[in-house]
Amino acid sequence: MAESAACPAFQLGRPRYDQSSFFGRLRHFVDIIDPSTLFVSEKKLKECIQLLDDYKHDTLPPGVSADQLWEAQKIKQAIIHPDTEEKIFMPFRMSGYVPFGTPIVIGLLLPNQTVMSTIIWQWLNQSHNACVNYANRNATKPTPTSKFLEGYVGAVTSAVSIALGLNVLIQKANKLSPGTRMIIQRFVPFPAVASANICNVALMRHSELSEGIDVLDNNGSVVGSSKIAARHAIMETAFTRVVLPMPIFVLPPIIMSYLERLRFLQRNRRLLLPIHSVVCLVTFGLSLPVAISLFPQMSQIEVSRLEPEIAMATDCKVLTYNKGL
């Protein structure tokens, strides 16, 4: 199959787009979260799996294009877990993250939250995140369920505690006008969710600090297990988890605080909720691929910064490790 600028030559198991550039990563993640794959039929899925098997065993029927193979791989990767080879439950697929997560985002950003509504929406958000994390986990090595439960309980506890604590502080800020207080209150979900994400990463991956993670050479071969690379991976992932919710939980309150001052919406208050929902959906859909494309999943580190035994085991100057998402 000839390679072209529009459609590169197919490579089984490899990303279609260059992961060293932001635009390449953006195009890759737009494919990953494409909600159209949620509507793929069982028959279509089997056809895609069969096509990829035919390619693997050099038994492709004539006339199959590289574009068809890339599309088949996209559909399989969106639905089938790469390690277990089982279908991922639809709401917990990455392609379902925006459509199934948007109602929760809308709930988190509703104004005038009560204590009970804050607890419920933060719990739903962390429950959804935990299910997505578990469904898309690395299943090559068995991980005790207790690790996921620790991360889940820690994330829910930190999210609810910080959200309630900030709400109490805002309510006690007597110098703030009611309007200003309500606007500030809308930004509470961001620090609560960001801190919960950090807590989740720290609890679920702290064993990597003692055991290390695999570092790979230019050929993809494992050179060794590095605790230093593990520390970098966890720090990078934690930072990513802070950046991820920023546009989703910061932009809608800013946009809505402006829209609510328009005379049309002041006369038609019943339109506020549907407009708020559309703003959250659009912001979530546009921000998610941009945010997760800022950093490559496969990170690199200089061998000189790693343990001496790893430096002695390779001639490469730079090694690669999976940072995680």
Summarize the structure.
GO terms for molecular function: citrate transmembrane transporter activity; monoatomic ion transmembrane transporter activity. This protein has 325 residues and is mainly alpha-helical.
Write the layout of secondary structure elements.
Elements: H1 22-32, H2 42-56, H3 66-79, H4 97-108, H5 115-135, H6 145-171, H7 178-185, H8 189-205, H9 207-211, E1 213-216, E2 222-226, H10 227-243, H11 245-259, H12 263-267, H13 272-292, E3 298-302, H14 308-312, E4 318-322
Antiparallel strand pairs: 1-2, 3-4
Helix pairs in contact: 2-3, 4-5, 4-13, 5-6, 6-8, 8-10, 8-11, 11-13
Question: What does this molecule look like?
Answer:
This protein is mostly helical and 325 residues long. It has 2 domains: 22-80, no CATH class; 94-322, no CATH class. It has 14 helices and 4 strands. The strands form 2 sheets. Strands 1-2 form a two-stranded antiparallel sheet.
- Please summarize the sheet with the most strands: 2 strands, antiparallel
How large is the share of residues in beta strands? 5-15%
Overall spatial form: globular
Arrangement of strands in the largest sheet: 1-2
The total of helices stands at: 14
Low-confidence stretches: 1-5
GO molecular function: citrate transmembrane transporter activity; monoatomic ion transmembrane transporter activity
Membrane topology: Multi-pass membrane protein
Family: Belongs to the sideroflexin family.
Subcellular location: Mitochondrion membrane
